[in-house]
Amino acid sequence: YNFNGNLLTTAGIYTDTVITQSGCDSIVTLTLTINPAYVDSISAEICEGQSFDFNGTLLSIAGTYTDTLITQTGCDSIVTLTLTVNPPLMTGIAVQICEGQSYTFGGQSLNVSGVYSDTLKTQSGCDSIVTLTLDVNNVITASVDATICSGQTYDFDSLSLSASGIYTDTLISSGGCDSIVTLTLTVNPPLMTGIAVQIC
Fold this sequence. Notes:
It contains no helices and 19 strands. The protein is mostly beta strands.
């Protein structure tokens, strides 16, 4: 502050004596107040794809931004913004089911192998993208043909079989699905041969 040729930068009470036009002393007392600059820091979070209005400027990239405003007393008001941009939350899951089963994902009942995605909202309101890799394992079928002689037995699923027929057994494969084995068992009868012999 220029006080009669003196530049003042410190708050305080100052006096100066000047001479009036009539030659008398004129004492001027100055009370100088220095208003501080107002400094404020704010933090904000937005989701990827959104923008934040910072005093008329739309921001969509994470970073630190400053803006200078004017207070009611005419001094600077410096605002520092720390902006965080949250990316979508990506989650991947893999599921295996057996043929004939279904898996519920995103409100849908799925029974075909493929890659599926669903978009949810996180607590902060941002996208949460879940990707499902679904594998549908086939039922394994196998056929076995076996032949035994009459009077013998064939061991099949802890059974000892001695009669011709078609038998099935359901096992669990390494993938947890059914594995169906079909046995066709043939029991050969004894070979009957007749001979005629004449002797003297």
